[in-house]
Amino acid sequence: MTTHPDDSFSPPVGEWYPPSPDMLNSALIKNYEQVYHESLTDVEAFWAKQAEKLDWFEPWTQVVDRSNVPFYRWYVGAKTNIAYNALDRHVKTWRKNKLALIFEGEPGDKQTYSYHKLYREVNKFANVLKSMGVKKGDRVTVYMGRIPELIMAMLACAKIGAVHSVVYGGFSEHALADRIEDAQSRVVITCDGAWLRGNIVKLKDIVDEAVRRSPIVESVIVVKRTGHEINMEQGRDYWYHDLMALPIASPICESVQMDAEDPLFILYTSGTTGKPKGILHTHGGYQVYTSTTLSWVFDLKDEDRYWCAADPGWITGHSYIVYAPLIVGATEIVYEGAPNYPYPNRWWKLVEEYSVSVLYTAPTAIRGLMRFGDAWPNRHDLSSLRLLGSVGEPINPEAWRWFYKVIGKERCPIMDTWWQTETGGFMITPLPSVPLKPGSATRPFPGIEVDVVDDKGEVCPPGTDGNLVVKGPWPGMARTIYGDPDRFVSQYWSQYKEQGWYLTGDSARRDEDGYVWVIGRNDDVIKVSGYRLGTAEVESGLVSHASVAEAAAIGVPDEVRGNVIYAYVILRAGQQPSEDLRDALKEHIRHEIGPIAVPSKIEFVTTLPKTRSGKIMRRVLRARALGQPEGDLSTLEE
Ligand code: PRX
């Protein structure tokens, strides 16, 4: 495809796809170049203008306070509440009776929530939390399946000013306990179980174990989802439906007036050490950033049916299932289960039945569904789709083309959104009017300046790999690592301290057209099926097993999952390698971290390649695993 509706347009280099005339016509932002340019001429005015679209109890006196870098403060002095913008303000308008949420459970059960109904349910639960002594600033851990109550729990916390810490339901009791401890949560919200591929994931059992390790927890609220027999500890565990039936659960609850910079949530993510970092986001800047990016990139209109297929337990779900879609007043779909259950057409059936117009997913899901062939999607009417999206890792051009042709029928542009837990929202992404190149996240969002630089900060010429950095603050940026501001500074803001740039941890290159091609992580973080894991987490998990003396983990490319983990293990004296031990180590990781961290291969070795200073040379292990040349070995210990 090499035509563009505008004759004066000069075609980009390489394979590219122009926006269709229809899309250009209907898109909210039609002239990316101009909007981008203008946004950077006065970036504070730009972010003030976007913030004015939301409701504030009191206005800001300053857009951004740069006096204590990198601890930027946005919308200084303003009072707001993100739950107010997501719910309260809509029930005062015609949107009151608009559908907010359409839920389908894996077994096929369905529920719908209008904005009014969702508002009332959230208010009721907010009152329940208050009655249990949860106050502004208290942390609440949420560990649930993908059901409406998860969204309601998060919004109820926000409403009363409590800080939610959602832990993805795929984490084990050990990982959950660590996160409860770090956040010091006295209340945990969970469900009895979650449906996955026809089986029950017994979440409450995992919570019981975690709480045994974290005595700080006083109350556990349990949503009944799967209905199987569970342990309920008297005086600690309460059924959600019992609490919601109490007179205290009134459907009226004022949203607490929060300072724009008051914390909204903590979300744990992996870094270069074994200890997960609690990324902290706040009410004010985050609501502006997520809602602006969503409405411009996915071009959401009131008649759209939007479906972000992520899990609310990750940042994609926080920003683009729970908060932004509700702030912009969208109707969204939430589906509980696996994409291929009971058959590989489940997603396409959902698209057809609910007339989904915008579908946002991850390359690993696209590749997984692509494997089943075109016949499954071709059985369904997918003509409602008008925009597609991808996130989590680089999308390989082959998967891009399949998504574009077989799912989008060459009609729907793909928004390949690059961002991170730390950035709060999309950073590098097309808008519907931007010509696309398969595999490139294209250009930075308005108000955002990024660059590709070498270790000293010199700009890399087009075609050369370098470190991806963000220049200057943005409203959706993380404010700190919970309880560890020094790590926040050292991790993200120290390499380019002089320049004041944010280090993303990704490597990337730019092409002649200024398009950004993100290559992958530059540090010891591995993306497995789009999930973020630290090599150090897997290694410390392995070393915590009694038979293991030392371990090294690396990511190795995989056709469907993007990367898988290979682990190299040195056993303690007296231990013998065996298949049983290999299985036991996999089970141990499943227990310590969760199924997503289980290595697909464990190799028993007697030495590991190390530098003279004792650092494991993962680069050498990776080369060996892939059968590639091992490169410069001059720093190898022996
Ligand atoms: O390596 C990049 C990759 O995911 C990392 C961030 O992971 P996480 O904090 O879990 O957030 C994922 C969802 C926002 C990034 O450092 N990544 C994310 N999106 C893309 C991507 N890599 C390439 N292209 C993308 N679109």
Overview of this structure, please?
An eight-stranded mixed sheet has the order 12-11-8-6-7-14-15-23, with helices on both faces. Helix content is 30%, strand content 23%. The protein contains 19 helices and 30 strands. With 638 residues, the chain is of the alpha/beta class. It binds adenosine-5'-monophosphate-propyl ester. Adenosine-5'-monophosphate-propyl ester (PRX) is lined by residues 269, 315-316, 391-394, 416-421, 441, 504-506, 518, 520-521, 527, 532. Adenosine-5'-monophosphate-propyl ester is lined by residues 269, 315-316, 391-394, 416-421, 441, 504-506, 518, 520-521, 527, 532.
Précis, in short:
30% of the residues lie in helices and 23% in strands.
Which bin fits the share of residues in helices? 25-40%
Major sheet: 8 strands, mixed
Number of strands: 30
Gross morphology is: globular
Q: Could you tell me the strand content as a percent range?
A: 15-25%
- Which hetero ligands occur in this complex? adenosine-5'-monophosphate-propyl ester
Low-pLDDT ranges? none
Q: Can you count the helices? A: 19
Biggest sheet: strands side by side, in what order? 12-11-8-6-7-14-15-23
Over all CA atoms, what is the radius of gyration? 24 Å
Structural class of the secondary structure composition? alpha/beta
Alpha carbon gap, first and last residue: 54 Å
**Overall pLDDT metric:** 95
Keywords summarizing the entry:
638 residues, eight-stranded mixed sheet, alpha/beta, binds adenosine-5'-monophosphate-propyl ester, globular, single chain, 30 strands, seven-stranded mixed sheet
